[in-house]
Amino acid sequence: GCGIEGGRQTEADCVSRDLSGTEKTLAFSNWPQYVDVNDDWTKRPSLDEFTTRTGIKVTYTEDINDNNEFFGRVQNQLGACQGIDRDLIVLTDWLAARMIRLGWIQQLDPAKLPNVHANLLPSLQNRSFDPENRLAIPWQSGLTGLAYNGSVTKEIRTVDELLTRPDLRGKVTALSEMRDTMGLLLQSNGHDPANFTPAQFDDALTKLRRAVAAGQIRRFTGNDYAADLARGDIAACVGWSGDVIQLAKRNEKIRFVTPDSGGLLFSDNMMVPIRATHRANAEKLIDYYYEPPVAAQLAASVNYICPVQGAQAEMEKLDPGLAANPLIFPDEAMLSTSTVFMTLDEAAEREYERKFQQVIGA
Amino acid sequence: MTEMAEPPAGDLRLVNLTRTFGSVTAVDGLSLTVARGSYFALLGASGCGKTTTLRMIAGLEEPTSGRVLLGDRDVTRLRPYKRPVNTVFQSYALFPHLDVFENVAFGLRRRGIRHDDEVPRMLSLVQLDGFGHRRPAQLSGGQQQRVALARALINRPQVLLLDEPLGALDGQLRRRMQIELKRIQTEVGVTFVHVTHDQEEAMTMADTVAVMNAGRIEQLGTPAGSYEFPATAYVANFLGQSNLLAGDADGRSGDHVAVTAHGARFSVPVGRSRADRGPVHLGVRPEKMHLVDTRDQVPGGCQHVTGTITDTSYVGVSTRYLLRTGWGSELTVFVANNGAHDPLPQGGEAVAYWHPRHAFLLPREPGRHDRVNPLFDEPVSVGS
Amino acid sequence: MTEMAEPPAGDLRLVNLTRTFGSVTAVDGLSLTVARGSYFALLGASGCGKTTTLRMIAGLEEPTSGRVLLGDRDVTRLRPYKRPVNTVFQSYALFPHLDVFENVAFGLRRRGIRHDDEVPRMLSLVQLDGFGHRRPAQLSGGQQQRVALARALINRPQVLLLDEPLGALDGQLRRRMQIELKRIQTEVGVTFVHVTHDQEEAMTMADTVAVMNAGRIEQLGTPAGSYEFPATAYVANFLGQSNLLAGDADGRSGDHVAVTAHGARFSVPVGRSRADRGPVHLGVRPEKMHLVDTRDQVPGGCQHVTGTITDTSYVGVSTRYLLRTGWGSELTVFVANNGAHDPLPQGGEAVAYWHPRHAFLLPREPGRHDRVNPLFDEPVSVGS
Amino acid sequence: MRFSRWFADRWVVGVALLVLGYLFLPIAVVTALSFNRPSSRLSYDFNEFTLDNWRNPCATSDMCDAVLRSVQIGFVATVAATALGTLMAFALARHRFRGRSGINLLVLLPMATPELVLGTSLLALFVAGGVPLGFWTVVVAHVMFCLSFVVVTVKARLAGMDRRLEEAAMDLYASEWQTFRRITLPLVLPGIVAAALLAFSLSFDDFIVTNFNSGTTVTFPMYVWGAAQRGIPPQVNVIGTAMFAMALLLVLASMVPGRRSPTTVNCPTRGRDP
Amino acid sequence: MNAVAHAPAGQRPATEPPPAARRRRHQLLPYLLLLPGAAWLLLFFAAPMLQLGAASLYDPTGSLSTGYALTWAFGNYPTALQAYWPQFGRSFLFAGTALALALLMGYPLAYVIARKAGRWKNLLLVCVIAPMFTSFLVRTLAWKTILSDNGVLVGLLRDIHLLGPDGRLLATPLAVVLGLTYHFLPFLVLPLYASLERLDHRLLEAAGDLYASPLRTFQKVTLPLSRPGLTAGMLLFFIPATGDYINAELLGTPNEYMIGNVIDSAFLVRLDHPQGAALSFLLMAAILAVVFVHLRRAGTEDLL
Ligand SMILES: Nc1ncnc2c1ncn2[C@@H]1O[C@H](COP(=O)(O)OP(=O)(O)OP(=O)(O)O)[C@@H](O)[C@H]1O
Ligand SMILES: Nc1ncnc2c1ncn2[C@@H]1O[C@H](COP(=O)(O)OP(=O)(O)OP(=O)(O)O)[C@@H](O)[C@H]1O
Ligand SMILES: NCCCCNCCCN
Ligand SMILES: [Mg+2]
Ligand SMILES: [Mg+2]
């Protein structure tokens, strides 16, 4: 016929067979710096422990660098009801919502997720795109804010500093994810990312455009900003809390800053895509990471906000300092300054995305 | 691939062979027979179709029409490698990636023969002992040509085609190769078809000489026959040199044809005349002309022309004199340096005489003048 | 680039020029002087270093040692484009991307001369009027060669180097080009250095002929001088042919040297002897030998050898006889086909005689036998 | 005078050496880093000399798998593309036939198409056809984009070949096949080898097209791309250095005297260039 | 062959097809040779491209979830061009500049390999190709290290005041152009080498003999005779360089982004398939136009 049909799938059209009974394997795609590792990066203790316990061999790939990039890579297959050869993927809530809307995510069996239902933080329950937590289970949450490398530049406090300070010209990166970068800019203009008007968006975008044109911003990045920041190739950036704290462990001059105007809150969710053939194995792993000691072990290494109740108590045993860190176990003050980016419908998302991409050069 | 073992195939016959390239007719309805085991020479101006003819015999060019026969066998459409025919190419066409040895051994190898001692023998024959391991690019022009020769000869084909194979060799080597070629030819009974632009070479080596012009054969015969009594002015000047005087024949008188040229009267025996009335060329070869100081030294029965010696050149074996006649043409006269005569002085008067039995008469297109070599009297037909 | 405007540079001198390629010595300590404005011919066997010599004069090859001088100026290290020297290459080397006109105009253009009417004049000289817009690939071999000639000639250099420039032309055209070259040379006073393997060409055209062998000059002199009295056996057989009988000189007796060869006694004038004692070669040119039926027909004062005629071949201008002597060598005798003699029968007895003033005497390496052409009595030295 | 001439003869060699230096500069860095013990996972700076990376090139679990897979894909794709492309080159260089210019355009277009476009459009085809992505879809894609380069390279070589040599071979009893095998092939071989080398390097190095059509198959460039974002393990530099060194060693080995490589036609150039 | 061998003379061997059949086989041969390769290209290149062509005319308001309708929306083309002409222009500007640089570097290199390297020829040739065996990503990252703000090179340039104290190399147009030059240089050098190697040295000698200085010889003989290789090399360089986006992405800033980055984003981030397809076709058309003009001007149309 003419044109192509939409890529929306339904569970009835696009069934998956679960081979977990016979195959003790699990293909898990995640972001870099998002799982605990030992000192010389040769082992992943919690995953190894999972394998010892269940006999399920996990193929762990750190191939998600950017939500959009990952979506772009898999959209064709999933839209045609083809597998992407991954059993478990971790994506940010807005993208999780989109994929759920497209019918690309398998339902999980609540009976197999006792720890999840027992320990998931209440604030992460009842989310609009998955009210019953049957599709997307939070892996970690985090904060989008600013970061700088103190060995290259002096302290930075605000988004405006980042975008205009002359000594930072060309030594700044921002995130290629529209919600992250624009959210901070909206906040810096005194607007609420959770609730803004198109005009407010345009104002924020103008600010960004000016910074780009002035050569202030070197690049828009995915998770790869971390390496540049660590090396000092960039002085300051928009970044994610856990990554920066991990870097700070090795170089205390690197600091994460929640801008004065506030930070952005996000969660990344574990999902089983359609056609994945090891859903039961995936469920085992999801539930495993909701055991508080495991969650604490993970949080102690990645330094993101832990979605598991009871992990803080476990953390006290591991590292009391971290247990008190509001960036890992946020307090009220922290939460009050941070917002979640507004939910956008498809048309709005495309329009904002188009405008944003045009400013960032593509 | 044992055609080699077959009995010699008999005569090589070309029947009405024609080849056109677009609008150019390179070979034009050519028919001839080369007797088995004979040595056949093909002469002709550059671009007259010699190479094209050889290529059709070798099977490298498909005739536009006509047939090629080896004995009774029609080989017109046979692939080149199935013909018991080898070629020494005008451009050598040595394989640049093989050394001299492998180049020469190529044909044997293809027929599964491993007579590696044949190759050194062949190399020694062309005086290239010890060159086996050089690449063609490391040889001088003449050396390359000898490799090409060896490469074809080693196969002892039934017909060997030679496209100016000795062109780049010096006189001494050339004479040796001529003798060697001739020896091989008689020894193995190979039919040779040899294209050359060296008239002397053609005459010493060949049993039959064909002179080609514009895709056709103008004369075919024994070397002496064609030389002594050429069929056309083209042949007369291509096979050796000729002094051709423009005149008019007045018909037979007895066994002679009477000719008037430049106001003088001459006669030619009927048997040496190809025309007896109308415009003719009276031809005399330069070596058949003799020079004396005065008219009274001319022997009886001879005919003569008076003139001034404008140039003499020493050529070793003979001396060439140019004699300017009263009407302005320059005749060529060869005098052998056999020690019998003293040289004539340049600028002096002299009389050239010849015996009528050494003259010949050819029809002449009206309007054509004397054709005496080597003046730039008319352009040679070259290429298309 | 004003060398062109300089006065003619004077003689061309090569001093002790040597060029080696790896272990091959192509040119070996060669020294010679070519007088300004003269026509110099270089002859020699294939691979003897002729091309390499020309290339060093042109500056295309750097000598391993030795010097090249133009008048008083040492040009050994001068880049080719700064020498008032042009070359007609053996391989033509026409620019395939330029048409004939542009090829010929190339040198003028480089010197900033825009005489576009020179080019048609030049083309007409080499009989290529109207070919200006063809590309080299569209020309036959002979036509390409003439373009190469025109391209060099148009520059009227002080020295023109010609590397077998007439090799691809048929006899008729070749004679015409020879005359034209000679005319241009005398007209413009250019020094010509002409490599050829055509002995006749060298002799008719050149003032001085040098015969090269294995990278060295064996003899240098006028054509007639070198031909009449060659310096070595190599020259005797390279410049024309010779019958060289192995004998022993017994010293002078009066103004003659007495020689014993194959049991018979001969004599040679002292002025024509290069040795008067010990092993010698007694040389007689084939055209200086005469054939008679019986010994008593030999004129007084002449010397003779008796034998059997084993081969006669008709070469047009002359007939070549091979005479097998009592001791088994085959002498060559040329008899001019001037109509004066009847041919002698093959297989018959005959006597060859000559006058002592036409003989010459050369030293001989002991152990060397008769050297009579064109037998494969010894390999020609080729290359290294 | 003599110096200026010497200089005139050599300057171009000097420039060429500088350009080679430019080509090798990053390789030098890669080589140096292959002996580095990085101070941190995200650091590229030279920290401390070590041989550990070379002793243990496969320390990072999946990297060597990726290299192996890339070599396999490169090999299969090179063989296929070289075979198909050489046949096409022969047809185009040696025959006049209807539709020749159309075929020429078909060969040229893939080179004129950005890789990204090739990748996405091919992916769409595979998805529409229900073809599971993996090793073979990558091979198919690589053959497709290598083909044009092979055709162009081999065609150029064929165009420069003297047809008379083939005629001479046929005249010397070589059948069509033998002529091809003994004369045409050896003479065109340098072109074919060059084409194959080019094809292999294109395939081995491809990221964009592969990224779209590989499914979960991870090739070396994909591995590096992923690794770049989370800090490159120093072993990547070992592989990079080793691949480069291997290519050089192969050629050096073929230059060992006495074992003349059949692809090397060593014609000493007579004379020198102006 | 053996059948022929034993056939008695004068008899047409059975294996020899009649001339007409042979001629027919001869006419069929090119098609047989072309079949596999052409089929491959038709199936895996032409067919997807047709599909892409259709996509460029889809309704621009379609989306992944609703699907796209083929509405022959030719407007996609002007819209795309209007929005992204700066990146378009930049692609050609950068690729063109890189090409100029590559010519300056590649010609001497190809010349030396072809004509001066002697027995080192093959080694040098592989030296040109071998860097490609070290994954280009690895090399590009190495460039990042070399050009890095804290690197030796920048430090040096700052010390000799070629760069200001704040000056940098990375994330500048220069870095992108250098990256492109580096990345595609072998594609220029290889074909150029091939035609320079075939050049008859005797022609160069003849030019020198006819008063052409080395410069003139180069200009009047070497250059024109290397034109086929030069043209091919320039195309093999320019075409992929224009469509490249990795160098701009890794070595540049958004201000250096080229059209490849835009197409990338259209397909993968903005999910605007019609626009992505339209931009792809615009790029191909522009490249082809440049190619044809170039071939026509160079007089090497038979490269096609
Ligand atoms: N492939 C071709 N295409 C067009 N014309 C051709 C072709 N081959 C030969 N000719 C033309 O046919 C004619 C005869 O050419 P051929 O090569 O047979 O001459 P030739 O007698 O061998 O000359 P030469 O003595 O110069 O070698 C020439 O005019 C030539 O230009
Ligand atoms: N580049 C080279 N490498 C090796 N040997 C060479 C080279 N050039 C010439 N020679 C050798 O040097 C010798 C002289 O070569 P040259 O070309 O000068 O001979 P020539 O007298 O011109 O021969 P011909 O009459 O065959 O053209 C030959 O033996 C040749 O093989
Ligand atoms: N290193 C792990 C980073 C995870 C970031 N998740 C993406 C959040 C996008 N807003
Ligand atoms: Mg010919
Ligand atoms: Mg020579």
Automatic annotation (TrEMBL), chains B, C:
Domain of life: Bacteria
GO CC entries: ATP-binding cassette (ABC) transporter complex
Pfam families recorded: ABC_tran, TOBE_2
Residue ranges constituting the ABC transporter domain according to the UniProt record: 12-239
Keywords: ATP-binding, Nucleotide-binding, Transport
SMART domains assigned to the protein according to its UniProt record, in alphabetical order: AAA
GO MF terms, alphabetically ordered: ATP binding; ATP hydrolysis activity; transmembrane transporter activity
SUPFAM superfamilies: MOP-like (SSF50331), P-loop containing nucleoside triphosphate hydrolases (SSF52540)
Name of the protein: Spermidine/putrescine transport system ATP-binding protein
Organism in which the protein naturally occurs: Micromonospora nigra
Automatic annotation (TrEMBL), chain D:
Membrane topology (UniProt): Multi-pass membrane protein
Residue ranges the record marks as coiled coil: none
Domain ABC transmembrane type-1: 67-257
One Gene Ontology term, aspect cellular component: plasma membrane
SUPFAM superfamilies given in the database record: MetI-like
TM ranges: 12-35, 73-93, 105-127, 133-154, 183-204, 238-256
CDD domains noted in UniProt: TM_PBP2
Keywords: Cell membrane, Membrane, Transmembrane, Transmembrane helix, Transport
Family: Belongs to the binding-protein-dependent transport system permease family. CysTW subfamily.
PANTHER family noted in UniProt: PUTRESCINE TRANSPORT SYSTEM PERMEASE PROTEIN POTI (PTHR43848)
Descriptive protein name: Spermidine/putrescine transport system permease protein
Native source organism of the sequence: Micromonospora nigra
TrEMBL record, chain E:
Residue ranges constituting the ABC transmembrane type-1 domain according to the UniProt record: 88-294
Membrane topology: Multi-pass membrane protein
Keywords attached to this entry: Cell membrane, Membrane, Transmembrane, Transmembrane helix, Transport
Protein name: Spermidine/putrescine transport system permease protein
GO cellular component: plasma membrane
Record carries keyword Phosphoprotein: no
Region (Disordered): 1-21
